[in-house]
Amino acid sequence: MTSANQIRMPAGGASASPAGPHKAGRASARRADNRRKWYEIIGLTTPAVLIYVMFVLVPMGFAVYYSLFRWRGVGPPTEFVGLRNYTLAFQDPIFLDALRNNAIIVFGSLLIQGPIALGVALLLNRRFRGRAVFRLLVFVPYVLAEVTVGIMWKLLLTGGGTVDALLRSLGLGSLVQAWLADLDLVIWTLLAVLTWKYVGFAIILLLAGLSNVPDELTEAAAIDGASWWQIQRHVTIPLLGPTIRIWMFLSMIGSLQIFDMIWVTSVPAVRSLGASATMATYMVDNGFFARLWGYGNAVAVILFVISFVAALLFQRFLLRRDIDGAITGRAK
Amino acid sequence: MATKQRRSAVLALLMTGVLVVAGCSGGDEEAAPQGELYKDPVTLTWWHNAPQDGPGKTYWEKVAKDFSALHPTVKIEIEAIETNQLQRTRIPAALLSNDPPDIFMTWGGGEMTEQVEADYLKDVTDQVKTEVASIGSAAEIWQVKGKQYGLPYRMGVEGLWYNKDMFAQVGIAAPPTTFEELNAAVAKLKAINVVPIAVGAGDKWPAAHWWYNMALRACSVDTLKKASTDKVFDDPCFVKAGQDLKAFIDTKPFQDNFIATPGQNDPTSANGMLANGKAAMELMGDWNRGTLDTVATDKAKLASFLGWFPVPAITGSPGDPKAALGGGDGFSCSKNAPAECVEFLKYLLSPEVQQGYAETGTGLPVVKGTDAAVKDPALKSILESTSSASYVQLWLDTAYGSTVGTAMNDAVVAIFAGNGTPEKVVSAMKAAASK
User: Fold this and answer.
1) With 0-12 CB in 10 A as exposed, 13-18 as middle and 19+ as buried, what is B32?
2) B12 touches chain A (CB under 8 A)
3) Which residues of B fall within a CB distance of 8 Å from A286?
4) Torsion of the alpha carbons at B218, B224, B230 and B233, rounded to the nearest 10
5) How far is B259 from chain A (nearest CA, A)?
6) Is B414 helix (H, G, I), strand (E, B) or coil?
7) Closest CA to A323 of A242, A251, A211
8) Local structure of residue B313 (DSSP, 8 states)
9) CB B382 within 8 A of CB B156
10) Pick from A217, A261, A319, A246: nearest CA to A101
11) CATH numeric code, B42-156+327-393
12) Which of A72, A272, A291 has its CB closest to that of B204?
């Protein structure tokens, strides 16, 4: 950047010379200003840029590089195989199962958590005794560490565990299932646990959004004779749009990358049969445990590309109005 | 404006590049000259797999302290890491980054062969001749092409751990020696409403070990040896192993929903079921004595009923009935570890240290003359079986390396889950070998 300034300085000086010393003085003051501004920008952004490059861009570059090798993580990668690892991944039925499971979690989370969160948020936005306590309780599962929640539910749902005992004592013994062992059921069990944990986050976000809905609007609607339901339907929810879209975005990215909860709650055998694997657990199972490091990197790159494309599409089409110009590049 | 921004971004990138390069070049000055033993102070880093509080962890701390007391120039820094993490991520990453611990765990077989080929391990053949002679044939598992790259400190064959009280209750006089007798025992045990055999199929390998034993019975020793060295699985005996296993699973000897049962470490695991009187048998290695203790609610009761017998023979199978599956834990020194590392390795295999290890009851010692320190009757019978085995086949997943091993275990688990076939196990192993 200093070099850029140096190149421009003589040019600026030359053009300023006919106008006399006055103008030149002001120009040089502006140049000094300009230079200081750039020192500040460089000084303040360098640490962040350095960290970003070293811990985000460089590892990503390495992942792409390693994904092109048949490499077992012993010695440097030497056996270049091109895109073979990518072809192998899409031929593996377990990887396709993992993709399907990720899709179930993405759409399941949106479709189940969205309506619940909206309903609870609207309720909690009304004034009643104990509202603060309710808000706190709703948020507790989200605050717990994911691993803690995973182990807790694993113990609750284990064969003959608390959930089964509870169902039997309520006379609902016929509903008892092999929650974590039934290969067709386990992904839905995990979806339920994920919903339990993350719905609180959606509710808190929506509550924050609701507090931004001006009282004047709802009051005006009430004076015009709108019922509570009509106010929610025609005033509050439309104004919540940006918040809902941001939550959908965060939920989608989180669901695509989900790892901890699945890893902790579901045992290796059930994962490796494809019943509960996600792209991230598949990556670790193959990369580290089967020691297919090149292949594991290829899966990591696939996971990245899917998340990245999903994020871009979402921002392009759904978040466009909310973050105009920031990503879409069309500043107004 | 736009160009300027881009230029400054490029500059920032370049600066980072310089830093990265500078950072990398810092790591190259290792390979300290190996001077006289115990002359200069050295620090040995030691990674082992006993992170849980207990006799294992305490004992290694004592061993390190004792060695430093004998040789004050040597300081030992221990890092205890859970086995999976240690084996799958920490050791490979440390070896790749050229900053490995000086002495760390190795398990022999396919993985070790690769580590040797990548020149990660110190050849200790000439320094450990006495120890190898004392350990005997088990030391061969830590050899690659005739050279010794590490030593085991624990070794044993696997078999069925069982509840003697339950066997007595249903009138089984002597432990089964054939699968017919085992099937009969299973039928009798079902009648008193206990789980005949607990299997931690959730962790995959405890289920896979059943297939390994079927293969051991179905295949000749030569076929098994060839499979380990050449990764060739064309012999029909590997398919027969799966068929025998399928027939056995069909007799329903295991607990319900075994596909989600973990192997060890918690009360709901297969270990917990045997330790707490819910199951009658469990197939497991010699380390099980220690892991059963950690999940037992009544350790004294466990000690009173626990017994052990070798995996039964399959009548009419070509496999050697006296052959057994086994494996162990060993330590190796990294390529550039100081010479003191080898001395410490030798110290770990000295009769005193091995005797002390045996007394902790966490596993079986490997050095001759330490047998007397093994007091537990179950462990004693393993020791006898190990020494009388005609051939000890290393765990197949270790012998074939993680890639083939994982594919094999996954395919066996599929048989357990009811959606795999004997043929698919073999085809998965072949596919993995080329992956």
Assistant:
1) exposed
2) yes
3) 406
4) 10
5) 6
6) helix
7) A242
8) B
9) yes
10) A261
11) 3.40.190.10
12) A272
Among B115, B403, B413, beta carbon nearest to A269 = B413
User: Shortest CA distance to B300 belongs to which of B328, B277, B270?
Assistant: B277
- A120-126: long-range contacts, CB 8 A cutoff, minimum separation 24: A120/A199, A120/A203, A121/A202, A121/A203, A121/A206, A121/A207, A121/A210, A122/A210, A122/A232, A122/A236, A124/A203, A124/A207, A125/A207, A125/A210, A125/A211
DSSP strands (E only) in chain A: 69-70, 79-80
Distance, CA of A84 to CA of B435 (rounded, Å) = 10
As given in the structure block, the two tokens for residue A186 are 């386990």
Whether the per-residue pLDDT at A7 is higher than 60: the answer is: no
- Tell me the per-residue pLDDT of A251-283, one tens digit each, with 9 for 90 and over: 999 999 999 999 999 999 999 999 999 999 999
What's the pLDDT band for A132 if we cut at 50, 70, 90?
Answer: confident
Q: Which of B1, B8, B19, B113 to mutate to test the interface with A (most CBs of A within 10 A)?
A: B8
Q: Is CATH 3.40.190.10 the right assignment for the domain spanning B158-325+395-433?
A: yes
Predicted confidence at residue B147, as pLDDT, reads 95
Contact A181 B260 (CB under 8 A): yes
DSSP letter for B140, please.
G
Q: Are B248 and B259 in contact (CB under 8 A)?
A: no
Residue in the structure block whose two tokens are 């920031």:
A326
Q: Is B428 exposed, middle or buried (0-12, 13-18, 19+ CB in 10 A)?
A: buried
CB within 8 Å: A74 and B410: no
pLDDT tens profile A33-62: 888 999 999 999 999 999 999 999 999 999
- Please indicate whether residue A319 or residue A182 has the higher confidence score (pLDDT): A182
The CA dihedral of B260, B265, B271, B272, to the nearest 10 degrees, is -90
Question: Does the distance separating the beta carbons of B259 and A181 come in below 8 Å?
Answer: yes
Q: Which of A32, A267, A228, A252 is nearest to A126 (CA)?
A: A228
In the three-class reduction of DSSP (H, G, I as helix; E, B as strand; rest coil), residue A224 is classed as coil
B268 in contact with chain A, both atoms CB, cutoff 8 A: yes
pLDDT at position B435 is 83
Q: What is the pLDDT of residues B252-283, one digit of tens each?
A: 999 999 999 999 888 889 999 999 999 999 99
* Residue B339 Cα to chain centre, angstroms: 27
Query: Across the interface, do A72 and B114 touch by the CB < 8 Å criterion?
Result: yes
Compare CB distances from B20 to A54, A74, A292 and report the shortest one's residue: A54
Suggest the residue from A288, A295, A297 to mutate for an interface test with chain B (most B CBs closer than 10 A). A288
pLDDT more than 70, % of chain A: 89
Beta strands in B116-170 (DSSP E): 143-144, 147-148, 151-157, 159-163
- Torsions phi, psi of B48, nearest 5? -130, 180
**Three state DSSP letters for A51-66:** HHHHHHHHHHHHHHHH
Q: Cα angle vertex B19, ends B17, B23, to 5°?
A: 115
- The answer to whether residue B140 neighbours chain A at the CB level (below 8 Å) is no
Q: What is the pLDDT of residue B128?
A: 95
User: CA triplet A96, A97, A100: central angle to 5 degrees?
Assistant: 90
The residue among A154 and B4 whose pLDDT is bigger is A154
ipTM for the assembly: 0.82
CB contact under 8 A, B414 and A273: yes
- pLDDT given for residue B5 in this prediction: 45
Which parts of chain B sit beneath pLDDT 50?
A: 1-34
Residue B339's φ and ψ, nearest 5 degrees, are -60, -25
Ranges for all domains in chain B classified under CATH 3.40.190.10 = 42-156+327-393, 158-325+395-433
